[in-house]
Amino acid sequence: MTAHDIPAYMAHLGAAARAASTRMARAGTREKNTALSELAQRLRAAGPALAQANARDIAAAEQAGLAAPMVDRLRLTGQVIETVAEGCEQLAAMPDPIGEITGVKRRPSGISVGQMRVPLGVFGMIYESRPNVTIEAASLAIKSGNACILRGGSEAIHSNMALWRLVQQALVAAGLPAEAVQLVETTDRAAVGRLIAMPESVDVIIPRGGKGLIERIAAEARVPVIKHLDGNCHTYVDAEVDLDLAVTVTDNAKTQKYSPCNATESLLVHAASAPAFLPRMGAVFAAKGVEMRCCAQARALLSGVPGAVLADATDADWAEEYLAPVISVKVVASLDEAIDHINRFGSHHTDAILTNHHPNAMRFLREVDSASVMVNASTRFADGFEYGLGAEIGISTDKFHARGPVGLEGLTSMKWVVLGQGEVRQ
Amino acid sequence: MTAHDIPAYMAHLGAAARAASTRMARAGTREKNTALSELAQRLRAAGPALAQANARDIAAAEQAGLAAPMVDRLRLTGQVIETVAEGCEQLAAMPDPIGEITGVKRRPSGISVGQMRVPLGVFGMIYESRPNVTIEAASLAIKSGNACILRGGSEAIHSNMALWRLVQQALVAAGLPAEAVQLVETTDRAAVGRLIAMPESVDVIIPRGGKGLIERIAAEARVPVIKHLDGNCHTYVDAEVDLDLAVTVTDNAKTQKYSPCNATESLLVHAASAPAFLPRMGAVFAAKGVEMRCCAQARALLSGVPGAVLADATDADWAEEYLAPVISVKVVASLDEAIDHINRFGSHHTDAILTNHHPNAMRFLREVDSASVMVNASTRFADGFEYGLGAEIGISTDKFHARGPVGLEGLTSMKWVVLGQGEVRQ
């Protein structure tokens, strides 16, 4: 099968993945764990073939004049390889989610009704640059009993193909079908258009990349999409609060790393704590070179902080995901105003309240309409590993099916199981 | 707001529903249950206003020459009213799903992580003929803390509006916003096109009606759809089986009612039990006038049954949802053939195995890729009430988010809750 006839090529990949998915769905825990251990071993032993493939991508990227950080993302260093190999071993050590039957209840008719966790079937993954995502997605597919079709970035195509070969070898070594993990071997963009429009072969699409890419996929897909758009996260400092805790946690939420989607982009402060809190907080931000875009009240309270970089916030600032040493700062009159502001300008990703007041903590948890809501913790904790999911295929900012960090469970479905002794409907 | 500017009208409904949804999300259990009790009372006391509205719809339907069964579906008889009123009271008596926090675990970082069940927000419901669906959808919205926008069939518009007024009165009597339940007051079809394309106001669409309607909505919707297409359900009679049980259950699965989506449409019989089972089963079907469309082997075994209406099955028969006194019958050589046949020709709705062989029962449960899988029970049990969901907004033949009968939980989402004491990310 050559790749110049894209519709036929993609239909072929889809049919192969669909066929393999029924075998994966009934694969035993030991088979799946063997495949993951085999993959970890093969990654560590991959040696020159993988290094050469990676070098080709890096040389092409440098020749094409890609920025140094983009080129770095492509690099399969020894440490990157070791990390993904360990990830496979961690997945192997986790409980198998598939086949678990829960909530079985006897009904008045005599039947027993419960739910069994089963794979979704086939997922399609569309991603950019970092080739280690190939292994993360493949290993999650294996453990969750799904098949998958992977479409990485064109700049990583040789690395991805080399990694994919290791995945297929590991599957075969475990007695599982190599076709359970398919890689799109062409960089033709038409392949993405087909991948997202084959409901007969693909049950869900998981895109990872820039907002533009994800919006386009969500608009054009003919299958469900688990998607992550903005991370405009808020930290709200309540009226009754431990000031030391508030400074420490807010500092971490904003400055521990600027680029992740769970970094805080907007700071809301209750008017009662603002006079004591904001000058202290502002001094920390000033020392780290974090620009503060302020409402008038916040600006007045921060104006005396030496070295502070201050600006007036616009409505666009309240909605902005900076991913940079910039934070918007607003003084609010009440918890209600904070909640309304977050639900209006936020991106429903992750928002935290810092408070000593229990009823306010509970109201914030209930009423802020976000995938993760936190009390007295850094928004940076919103992460599959930190939540104990073992691995993360993505983060969902939707409410449907999977919300927030998506691990193995997000790749499964619950079917109803009825156990009878010959009961009939009256 | 008049209805001649459909986009503006629908945007207005959507904005009102979205605003009301935040109030519904934080409504107390007592408020929601009061609204449901008030609604039950008002339904029983509705009297002439409701009867007159219903009479208008029925007169119009009769004048338009609608078939008698279609006209009957419109009728709000005393019994229909009492049934929906009791449904509201049953929902009031059920546990409130909203706010429940589950699975809280302490993580090595010190934070506690769990999940809180919350409403989806706003659902849109598109349905045909029977006006009691207006009350079923409204009451499920109230209990699940959602707002909803209802779009019923044009033939029931006056009945739906009269019922809707009772819903709004009940909401107000409970101190909840009347806008939590919106009804599209125009019968213009353009309103449906808008309803399914307002992601800013509507989180999910639930269509109930003919397959054509649902396929069109699924293809055009810009928000998730909980949809139910075919119910091509199978009963498979295994090699080791109690023949009395097999005849009783298969009879019930096919003939207890012909029209529901969970009625069995296809009978598979293992070759080892077919010679004893099929003539007995065929006699029952012959007595009830059920036509049997057979493979060659089945036809040979049934040919001696007096009065049997037999025909040769085509591939189209294996895929057909008859909703009528017709059943396709096939003899299979193995459990594997049965499972493959069901996964190939079935609609992933409900399929049952009748067997005394435990390993075969377990394989069937695991490997048949359907929303409901059953052992030794009638497929007719696939139903929200029979499963103990208390109420049913629809049945999903998708794997994503909600699968099979959808009750209150399908109208909710789980958000992550993090409880800390000032933890920061390392």
In a nutshell, what does this entry contain?
In chain A, 43% of the residues lie in helices and 20% in strands. The first copy, chain A, is α/β, with parallel strands linked by helices and 426 residues long. In chain A, helix 12 (296-302) links the parallel strand 9 and strand 10 (310-312).
General description of the model:
The structure is a homodimer of 426-residue chains. Chain A is an alpha/beta fold and 426 residues long. The first copy, chain A, has two domains: 6-226 and 405-418, Aldehyde Dehydrogenase, Chain A, domain 1 (3-Layer(aba) Sandwich); 233-381, Aldehyde Dehydrogenase, Chain A, domain 2 (3-Layer(aba) Sandwich), CATH 3.40.309.10. Chain A has helices at residues 6-25, 29-44, 48-63, 68-74, 78-93, 132-144, 157-173, 190-195, 211-220, 243-255, 274-288, 296-302, 315-319, 335-345, 358-367; strands at 101-106, 112-119, 122-126, 147-151, 181-183, 204-207, 233-237, 264-270, 291-294, 310-312, 326-332, 350-354, 372-377, 394-396, 404-406, 412-423. In chain A, the strands form four sheets. A seven-stranded parallel sheet of chain A has the order 10-9-11-8-7-12-13, with helices on both faces. In chain A, strands 5-4-3-6 form a four-stranded parallel sheet, sandwiched between helices. Chain A has a three-stranded antiparallel sheet with strand order 1-2-16, with no helix packed on it. In chain A, helix 5 packs parallel to helix 6 (132-144). In chain A, 54% of the residues are buried. Chains A and B meet through strand 2, helix 10, helix 15, strand 13 and strand 16 of A and strand 2, helix 10, helix 15, strand 13 and strand 16 of B.
